[in-house]
Specification:
With 154 residues, this protein is α/β, with parallel strands linked by helices. It is 38% helix and 17% strand. The protein is globular, with a radius of gyration of 17 Å. The protein binds zinc ion.
């Protein structure tokens, strides 16, 4: 992700461009791993050692409020951040607490169709995202998983 694109993205979301904000967004794009505040801070601190972690937290929360970043809550209650907002689900490994992306258009469509037909009274659904918990047999296999099987939903 180049700096011009990050600048545009910040302006599109109505945010002033500051070196700190640029560094935070850059870190989010470089870490595809749903980083915690501390993980984002460790990347930002490589180029801007004087930015307080509290400031980074504040920037992340502003990005969430502006709809540029999504919060991902884990079972261990550690808040993580996701800047990839295309429809995807999450695979949560209970052994190491890592979160991998799970792309499956068929599943996403199936869930959308289900809730179009089965509304929840008094509740407006913005999005349905699954968090699938379990353990990877081979920890080295941690990576984003994409299921591209295009079959019709029976
Ligand atoms: Zn994700």
């Amino acid at each position: 992700m180049d700096k011009t694109k990050i600048r545009n993205l910040l302006s599109e979301h109505g945010m002033r461009i500051t070196p700190q904000r640029l560094a935070v967004v850059e870190a989010l794009f470089s870490l595809r791993s749903h980083p915690t505040v501390e993980e984002v801070a460790s990347i930002v601190h490589k180029t801007q050692p004087n930015v307080a972690t509290g400031t980074i937290y504040h920037i992340l929360e502003t990005l969430v409020k502006r709809g540029m970043v999504m919060k991902v809550k884990t079972e261990s209650d550690v808040m993580r951040y996701d800047i990839f907002l295309d429809p995807h689900h999450h695979i949560y490994c209970t052994d190491c607490s890592s979160i991998e992306d799970y792309y499956n258009e068929e599943l996403t469509r199936m869930l959308e169709l289900y809730f179009e037909e089965h509304t929840i009274p008094g509740f407006t659904i913005d999005e349905v995202r699954l968090q699938i918990s379990g353990r990877f047999e081979d920890p080295s296999k941690h990576r984003s998983i994409r299921v591209d099987r295009k079959s019709s939903i029976a």
